[in-house]
Amino acid sequence: MRWKGRRGSDNVEDRRASTGARIGGGGGSGIGISILSFVMRTFGFKGVIVAVIAVLALWKLGIVDPSALLGGGTSTSSSNAKFVESEREKELYQFVTVVLADTEKIWTEAFAKHGQKYVAPKLVVYRKFVQTGGCGGGSAAMGPFYCPADKKIYIDLGFYDELEKNFKAPGDFAQAYVLAHEVGHHVQNMMGTSGKVSARRGKSDYNQMSVRLELQADYYAGIWANQSRQYLEEGDIEEAMRAANAIGDDTIQKKSSGKVVPHAFTHGTSEQRMRWFMNGMKSGRFEEGDTFSQAYESL
């Protein structure tokens, strides 16, 4: 994929300076008070003073955030001095900004054709752990994800190494497909589709609705690929297909447990994901990505 030297998006929030040490949790104020009460009962007032001094010392070292204990909820300690960007990560960072810029252009034009305004999502680049603005905490183990509540996409760039080594899906176009898929979820959020699916949570058909949502996001990623043809190189589409194949529910289930459980699917099979991506790639039309009106068995 030809991407070097092209414009990158400004809608990127770099949180990689975070150390990734997750501290605290919901109801932090109650936890903090309980700890201080225990120290007071056990060691007396002098013990409380020692405890406070210890917390302040750890805070200065960037190990503990007092707000996590005194009502700040889950937080992530940070230390700019510890952040070192490798050459590979620097290139990956530049790469995702270019892909994001491409999606902004494509979806701005697509929405304009329907008389609507596209508001681009923010891309948050982090390491290890991250706190979202409405979807709780996230981790690198989750892979890239979209939070509808704050309209942000979250990614640990280390996922791309995982994609290459463990999922056997190398290549920059495979990496771009994954990001374009998450942007697809943002489009669904703007259209109100995500909210309708979320409302089915806990219902018997929720998993099927989730599969429909994911396949539509794959279709939207295909639209991005269709509109990015001028930047494609030989083998790029095959890279995206390998990625779509590697992250299908059936493939992941078989790899992890040795068996496939269709009723537990939430993203679709490898074959479905590849096919819906190619549908979007061939069509390039926003209107043909309706995965909700047809019978589930025919998806």
Describe the protein.
By secondary structure, the protein is α/β, with parallel strands linked by helices. The chain folds into two domains: 23-82, no CATH class; 86-298, no CATH class. 50% of the residues lie in helices and 11% in strands. The chain has nine helices and eight strands. A four-stranded mixed beta sheet has the order 1-4-8-7, covered by helices on one side. A two-stranded antiparallel sheet has the order 2-3. Helix 4 (172-191) crosses helix 6.
Write the layout of secondary structure elements.
Blueprint: E1 12-14, E2 18-23, H1 28-60, E3 75-78, H2 87-113, E4 122-126, E5 129-131, E6 137-139, E7 145-147, E8 152-156, H3 159-165, H4 172-191, H5 193-198, H6 206-227, H7 236-246, H8 249-257, H9 270-283
Parallel strand pairs: 1-4, 4-8
Antiparallel strand pairs: 2-3, 5-6, 7-8
Helix pairs in contact: 2-4, 4-6, 4-7, 6-9, 7-9
Give a brief description.
With 299 residues, the protein is an alpha/beta fold. It has nine helices and eight strands.
